[in-house]
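User: I need a structural model of Carbon-nitrogen hydrolase family protein from Marinicauda algicola for a docking pre-check later this week. Nothing fancy, just the predicted structure tokens so I can convert them on my end. Input:
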Amino acid sequence: MSRVKVALIQMRSGTDPERNLDDAEAMIREAAGQGAKFVLTPETTNLVQKDTQRLFETLKSPVEDPAPIRFARLAEALKIDLLAGSFALLGADGRAVNRSHLFGPDGEVKALYDKIHMFDVEIGGGESWKESANYKPGDRAAIADAAGMKVGLSICYDLRFPYLYRRLAQAGALALTVPSAFTRPTGRAHWEVLLRARAIETGSWVLAPAQGGRHEDGRKTWGHSMVVGPWGEVVGALSGDDPGILYAEIDAEEALEARRRIPALSHDREITGPGKPA
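Assistant: Understood. Predicted structure tokens for Carbon-nitrogen hydrolase family protein:
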């Protein structure tokens, strides 16, 4: 079996993109120095800003923002696969986009993925979110090679939609990435069980780097970055919300073996009724 060392970067990004990128680069370089060949950062690595006016005053277009170029050069310099879990960028229609970038060891972009499912929720306790008010959702799944296997991309709230991960796995993904900024209430209740469920359902590795702690804009995120194996076992996890690096080794053969043992991905059935609600 050929095992690959991965590193999940846990951050507490703030409102200053340059400082966030400096923090991310320092940890990425540390992880590569420890032998990681695939390094992943969390959702909105470059900016956590919940104030709409300040968000749009800070956002830059994909061609103007320095983050993609900086990460591309970093991946090439370190000769690693590098997933920018997501960058908050200004889209062509004036709305923001929440976009993952997967860079290869040559610095080229292997895949782009815009978060499909918008976090429009009323959590309770006075906490509510309306992501669709500012962000344009994506409409295309993405899969690419990294760490010696096919990897399917997703972001945060996507985690609650099993059909996306099933399609990625059926398309050949043996690892699923879930860069996130989970809220504390939902993280405490659902983070681990959802990650393990997606791994079990698909027989896949699940790699989930997270934002954690109290951010400059007042937002509080759960942290607890996690790697889950294809049989649903927690291979590694950070114990809290402080910035840090989680290391693990993953192997494509373990995912293939899980699928041989329970080949559920090939057992879909056509059903009728009751249909979608009107």
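Before docking, keep this in mind: The two ends are 50 Å apart (CA to CA).
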